[in-house]
Amino acid sequence: MTSEIKKKKRVRDESKYEHAWLLFSQKVSRQEIARRVGIAERTLTRWITNDDWHSRRAAANITRDELINKTLKLIDGLLEKSLEDDSADSSGLADKLSKLAGAIKNLDKQANVVDIIQVFMTFNRWLMSRQAIDATLTDDLIKTINRYQDTFINERLAHQKE
Question: Which pLDDT value is given to residue 67?
Answer without folding.
Answer: 74
